[in-house]
């Protein structure tokens, strides 16, 4: 082999090695749920009442930022988390903000407050999320699934006024984490809208009780 050809080959190997070393590493991707609510017509169903949204509860496996998927087409229906993708915050926290914004945007309440707000409230909304995952019916087809139970309580006596389970599934546009995020975002917005509609119906006959007074009147 000639000297110049040998030199060219060595140079090519060095450059190739440098390119391999300088190739950017794959970094984890962090996703968020949309927390902005679309404007909704006011029903004025609870115009004189304040609603408190209690801290959203979840099972232990959802108490974190993991992004989970289920392989329903397998016999074991196993659940796993994406290795390189997660949520920027626990889903319960993001859903709490989305619910509060959605219900407040309807202008049907005097105010909608969160669990840490010291304001007195006529009603309390409890939400338990039972499933928040991407479910694959086949390697190519999946949905974003949100399953929850919602309970409306009297804010003073904690008496149950109404309760309803919700199960929402939205087709994912892709068989990957990004597709699951898109589907779960849509499912979350549909859930928040459905809760708003249900509250208008469940509390239609309820009126906030007057605050207790200490002057005997």
Model description:
There is one protein chain. The chain is 28% helix and 32% strand. By secondary structure, it is an alpha/beta fold. The protein has a single domain, classed as 3-Layer(aba) Sandwich (Rossmann fold), CATH 3.40.50. Strands 1, 2, 3, 4, 5, 6, 7 and 8 form an 8-stranded mixed sheet that branches. The longest helix is centred in the last third of the chain and has 26 residues, at 177-202.
Number of helices: 3
Which oligomerization state do the chains in this entry correspond to?
single chain
CATH first level? Alpha Beta
**pLDDT averaged residue by residue:** 82
Number of spatially distinct domains: 1
How far apart the termini lie comes to: 108 Å
Instruction: Please identify the structural class as seen in this structure.
Output: alpha/beta
**The CATH homology group name:** ABC-type transport auxiliary lipoprotein component
Helix and strand succession?
A: HEEEEHEEEEH
* Share of residues in strands: 25-35%
Q: Which secondary structure elements does this structure contain, and how are they paired or packed?
A:
Blueprint lengths: L2 H20 L6 E3 L14 E8 L12 E6 L7 E9 L3 H15 L3 E5 L9 E14 L5 E13 L5 E12 L5 H26 L15
Parallel strand pairs: 1-4, 2-5, 2-6, 3-6
Antiparallel strand pairs: 3-4, 6-7, 7-8
Helix pairs in contact: 2-3
What's the short version?
It is built from 3 helices and 8 strands; from the N terminus they run αββββαββββα. The protein has 217 residues and is of the alpha/beta class. It has one domain: ABC-type transport auxiliary lipoprotein component (Rossmann fold).
């Amino acid at each position: 082999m000639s000297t110049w050809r040998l030199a060219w080959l060595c140079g090519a190997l060095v450059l190739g090695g440098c390119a391999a070393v300088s190739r950017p590493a794959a970094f984890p991707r962090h996703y968020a749920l949309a927390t902005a609510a679309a404007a909704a017509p006011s029903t004025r169903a609870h115009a004189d009442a304040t609603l408190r949204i209690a801290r959203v509860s979840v099972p232990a496996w959802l108490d974190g930022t993991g992004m989970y998927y289920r392989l329903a087409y397998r016999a074991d229906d196993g659940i796993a988390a994406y290795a390189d993708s997660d949520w920027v915050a626990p889903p319960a926290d993001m859903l709490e903000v989305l619910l509060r914004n959605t219900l407040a945007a309807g202008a049907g309440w005097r105010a909608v407050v969160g669990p840490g707000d010291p304001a007195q409230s006529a009603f309390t909304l409890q939400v338990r999320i039972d499933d928040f995952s991407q479910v694959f019916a086949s390697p190519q087809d999946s949905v974003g699934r949100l399953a929850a139970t919602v309970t409306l309580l009297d804010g003073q006596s904690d008496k149950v006024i109404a309760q309803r389970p919700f199960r929402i599934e939205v087709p994912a546009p892709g068989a990957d984490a990004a597709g699951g995020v898109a589907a779960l975002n849509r499912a979350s917005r549909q859930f928040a809208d459905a809760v708003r509609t249900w509250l208008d119906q469940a509390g239609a006959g309820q009126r906030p009780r007057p605050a207790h007074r200490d002057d005997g009147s």
